[in-house]
Structure formats: C-alpha cells, structure tokens
Amino acid sequence: MAATNKIGLEKGDYKGAPTTLCQGCGHNSILSQIIAACYEMNMAPEDIVKFSGIGCSSKAPTYMLDRSFGFNGLHGRMPAIATGAMLGDTTLTGIAMSGDGDSVSIGMGQFKHAMRRNISMLYIIANNGTYGLTKGQLSATSEVGLTLKKQATNALQPIDICVEAMASNATFVARSFAGDPKQVKTLIKAALRHNGTAILDIISPCVTFNNADSSYHSYGWGRENKNPIHDLSFIPARDEIMIEDYEEGTMQDVAMHDGSVIRLKKLERDYDPTNRMAAVQILEESSANKQLLTGLIYIDPNRPSFVNTLDLSETPLNRMTDEELRPGPETINDINVAMF
Ligand SMILES: Cc1ncc(C[n+]2csc(CCOP(=O)(O)OP(=O)(O)O)c2C)c(N)n1
Ligand code: SF4
Fold it and tell me: Which residue has the higher pLDDT, 270 or 329?
C-alpha cells in the first residue's frame, strides 16, 4: 500500500494531468518539488489555489494538484487575478507559477505591484531566459551575447528578477536552480509559510531552445556556476526543533509568522538574509562575478500582508451574504456621519 501523510493522502493525490512539457524541461522538476512539498506539509489540495499566465511555465500548473482550484490568466496578468482571489478567500494558500516572459517581459507592472502590496502567495518564476512556448525568442532575462537559434544575438541588458523584487520591497526573495531539487523544495516549503509575496526565481532550463552550456539558463552553466549562500532546512511549526550537530556560530534561524523556522547553515561567508542592504549588495556582486547565487536572499517575516494592511474581516468575503457585502444607504450614511 502507498504511504500516506498526516492527513491520510498519498503523494498521487497531489498530482495533476500527465505533463506535455518536453522531457528534461526544468519546469517538470519544479512541479515535482511543489507536489512533494505540499504532500510533506500535509496540505489539503482543496485549500490551495493555483495561478498562472501564458507560457510553458504557465501551462505547468495543469500537471500538479488537480484537486486544487486554478486560474489561468491572460499573458502577464496573473497577479491581478491572484490579488482578487486571495482577497476573496483568505483561507486559501496561493501558488503562482509564471515565466520570465510572462512576469518580466509583458507582465512587469503586474509583477511589481503584487510585491508592493505583499499579496500572500508563493510566486515562482520559472526562468529559462527565453520564450519556450512560442519557440525560443530572446526574453527580458536573456544575458547580453546570448545567441538563440533563428534569433539575433542579444545586445540588451538583462533584467534581474531578484534585484527587481528587492526594489519593489518584496518580503521574501530567493533564487534557486531546477537542477538542485533539495534546495528548491526547502525554499518552496518556507515560501508556503510566508505571510506575504514569496518570490522564487528558479533557473529552469529550456532543453529545446536555450540549453547550450554557455547559456546562463542552461543545466551545464547552472551546475558549473551555482553558488549557494547557505544550506537550508525548514522546520514546520509544531515539529520539534531538533538540535543538530552544527558548530556554534555557523547557523541562523529565522522565525516565520506561524512559528515555523528556516534554519540557515553558513557555507563560506556570514550572510544575514534579514539585512536588506546586504541582499542588494550580494545580488550585485554575484551578477558582476557571473555567478548563479542561490538560497534565501532576503526575508522580512514581519511586514503585514495585503490582507493585514486592509484589515479584512475574519469571515472571508466569499462566505458573506449579499446583505453583509452591500450594507445599504443607511449604513453608508452612518459611516459618513461618523467621519465628520
Ligand atoms: C498578449 C500576448 N502577447 C504574446 C503572446 C505570445 N506568447 C505566448 S507565451 C509567450 C512567452 C512565454 O514565455 P515565458 O513566460 O518565459 O514561458 P516559457 O514558455 O518560456 O516557460 C508569448 C510571447 C500571447 N499569448 N499574448
Ligand atoms: S519548449 Fe522549452 S520551456 Fe517549453 S516545455 Fe519544452 S523545454 Fe520546457
């Protein structure tokens, strides 16, 4: 008999339709880690809502969590749909999957406003430096000098997703590589517990259109240039925090709002992901040194999410009656009078 988690579900209960993405596509490995994280965190699929835009990456949510709710938006417009849904039902956990074309080329405005508002959701950008679905055009994250089949050589500066996230006051900024499933899964788990927008920029190679070893979004380049800033583990609230065999001074714990903890084990350098200036600096340094910096780059677990800022009622809006949602002219009048 297949193993079950604490809510009695098998891993298969978290799967979706069979993938139609190319074999070896990084997006498939990201999907596997989302499925594993939700299973291991004992999340009911019915309490999850998936969001996406347009692209191979945005098709991907079809291939996971088929018992969850799902919205597939217009190209680059997913954050607006997610904003509405996450305000409409505050009991759900949001998982957004987008691409560099979807979020950073056509959808940059929407992407930035989601972070500014701090909409509570895991927001993955499966970053392959190309438009895979439309057969391999250059994207806004393609590096200078990248030459793609049937395309000119890119002469324009790339947009760095994590730098943009920092500039937009995102409260959780991380980068990973689809070829590092352990780190991807740990970051997904932490992001699912974050009370705000958790940006996960995952380099996710497009094996069909952008996987030459010299390309910054390929498996070869990622494996050669990956530079993790720490070893991560995630300890859910209620699980006993085990004392592990780490040397003093080599570890840092960051507490999440629900009591879960992200434990960061120092690798080569001391790095504090709650230090905003350090985050901006390390991103600039890694870009200058042409390194694929991975790990939890920045976190602010204390800033209020959009729902907290708006001070929404305990009862989700989608559970209220028409009378409760439209209080009528007398109530509006009372409110106006009270404001004078
Ligand atoms: C308004 C609009 N413009 C252009 C397109 C064509 N189009 C579809 S997907 C896509 C890019 C997808 O790239 P990305 O988000 O990086 O996803 P990938 O396929 O690489 O995973 C484009 C330009 C569209 N569907 N709608
Ligand atoms: S075309 Fe590229 S991005 Fe699309 S499924 Fe194939 S490998 Fe993945």
Answer: 329
